[in-house]
From TrEMBL, chain A:
SUPFAM superfamilies the UniProt entry points to: Cytochrome c
GO molecular function: electron transfer activity; heme binding; metal ion binding
Pfam families: Cytochrome_CBB3 (PF13442)
Residues annotated as domain Cytochrome c: 98-188
Record carries keyword Transmembrane: no
Database matches in PROSITE patterns: CYTC (PS51007), PROKAR_LIPOPROTEIN (PS51257)
Source organism, top-level taxon: Bacteria
Name recorded for this polypeptide: Quinol:cytochrome C oxidoreductase
Annotated PANTHER family: LIPOPROTEIN-RELATED, QUINOL:CYTOCHROME C OXIDOREDUCTASE MEMBRANE PROTEIN
Source organism per UniProt: Rubrivirga marina
Keywords: Heme, Iron, Metal-binding
From TrEMBL, chain B:
Transmembrane helix listed as a keyword: yes
Coiled-coil blocks: none
Positions of the Cytochrome c7-like domain: 126-216
Organism: Rubrivirga marina
Highest rank taxon of the organism: Bacteria
TM region(s), chain numbering: 12-35
Keywords recorded for this protein, A-Z: Membrane, Transmembrane, Transmembrane helix
Identification of the protein by name: Cytochrome C
Length: 216, 217
């Protein structure tokens, strides 16, 4: 082999070996690491000092942060219950179209996975595994029993979970929980209503528009 | 007196000249290609303690990004979900899976799973997810098609030049804030969308900072 072909081979090796866009398990090379990882702990970093290795510590039970005191007055909003422990019958904040839209967005993020977009309990996790599901059933919202429940009950289920459904309190903030409650109520209305419940303009649109064409 | 330089030394000026020119070019090409974050930063895909697949969860199951990364709209730090979020489903789904053993262990012991962070910007550069997500920078713009990644890799260089590219010309990357988590949006972006973005930037006064104090404090 001549020197020339050896050189060509070397160039080819460097060229191919350094292809951009290839994935690698090797961490990026940062020549100057002075302040890449500074000596403080950021959110969700590891801290070898503690037994569980986490830098974020759990607050002591029973402590209250400023501005987060839960009182008898804000119990309906924070717990979905009145001061004497009963579920609040209606959403304790003003239900506006904006709140419903927010509720729909949050519902579609957190709830559709199991409950489905229509609230019929046919979300992807419930009907997955080739249609067999995973050994648990998701009830539909559209039953008389669930329609008759107070709003505070739905809030309580989001916050604390029920049966095999875990708590979503750590994922959804109180105001958003109420938005979801409002949207679930709207979903229930949508499945139990008739065309007569709709405003005149919407009814007209329904009767004339082709349902297969999205109206904008 | 013998000749000081042999005859073949006549080629020396030519070789020196072209060597200097070509060598310079080679050097520039080498640095430009190999010493850029596009080369040494993009494509980092470490092995994770749990073989988590975004392609399955976000792609096939169609879960919204915010189901797990739920603080991304309120916080500078887009959280890695706690074990609790995994157990929302995996308390009842695939409870016998060997791949999920570290998740169940973490749930039982309370010791967090040691995920390996891929997108690490040096600690002296502060970044806020909330500030970007709420004006409509899609997940896809910076993290690539996560919904198609079996194993997450870094898709963009996250270098300062790359950040500033978008801060100087944000209209090419913005979208309706309601669509931030939609994947595949960028491929369908049209000139009309960019024009709409320009109007929105004007209307809402979106001013991506280009000064030091924005990120480096």
């Amino acid at each position: 082999m001549t020197h020339r072909s050896l050189l060509a081979l070397a160039v080819l090796a460097v060229g191919l070996g350094g292809c951009r866009g290839m994935t690698s398990e090797a961490p990026p090379i940062h020549p100057n690491l002075n302040m890449d990882y500074v000596q403080r702990f950021e959110a969700q970093e590891a801290n070898p000092f503690f037994a569980d290795g986490a830098a974020m510590r759990t607050p002591v039970a029973g402590t209250v942060a400023r501005g987060q005191l839960k009182t008898a007055e804000n119990a309906p909003f924070e717990y979905g219950r009145t001061a004497d422990g009963a579920y609040v019958p209606e959403v304790p904040i003003e239900v506006t179209p904006a709140l419903l839209e927010r509720g729909q967005e949050r519902y579609n993020i957190y709830c559709t996975v199991c409950h489905g977009y229509a609230g019929d309990g046919r979300g992807i996790v419930a009907v997955g595994n080739g249609g067999l599901g995973y050994g648990f059933s998701v009830p539909s919202y559209h039953t008389d029993a669930l329609r008759a429940r107070p709003d505070g009950y739905i809030y309580d289920v989001i916050q604390n979970g029920i049966n095999t459904m875990p708590s979503y309190g750590h994922e959804i903030a109180p105001a958003d929980r109420w938005a979801v409650v409002a949207f679930v109520r709207a979903l229930q209305r949508s499945q139990a209503g008739s065309a007569a419940d709709l405003p005149e303009t919407e009814r007209e649109r329904l009767s004339t528009a082709n349902p297969n064409v999205r109206q904008n | 007196m013998p000749q000081l330089f042999p005859r073949r030394a006549n080629a020396l000026p030519t070789v020196t000249l072209f060597g200097a020119l070509g060598g310079g070019l080679l050097l520039v090409a080498f640095v430009w290609y190999y010493l850029s974050p596009e080369f040494y930063e993009v494509g980092y895909a470490p092995e994770q303690p749990v073989p988590y697949s975004h392609a399955l969860h976000a792609g096939q199951l169609g879960m919204d990004c915010r189901y797990c990364h739920n603080h991304v709209e309120q916080s500078p730090h887009a959280n890695v979900p706690p074990t609790q979020t995994c157990m929302n489903c995996h308390g009842v789904v695939k409870t016998e899976s060997a791949a999920l053993l570290p998740v169940r262990e973490s749930w039982a012991t309370g010791v967090p799973i040691e995920w390996v962070k891929i997108h690490h910007v040096p600690d002296y550069a502060q970044f806020s997810h909330a500030a970007h997500v709420n004006v409509g920078v899609g997940c896809e713009s910076c993290h690539g098609r996560i919904d198609q990644m079996e194993v997450v890799y870094q898709a963009e260089p996250l270098s300062m030049g790359w950040c500033l590219e978008c801060h100087r010309q944000p209209e090419d990357h913005l979208r309706d804030p309601a669509l931030v988590t939609q994947m595949g949006y960028l491929e369908q972006m049209t000139e009309a969308d960019i024009q709409q973005n320009r109007e929105r930037i004007e209307r809402e006064g979106i001013k991506p900072p280009q000064n030091c104090s924005a990120c480096h404090y």
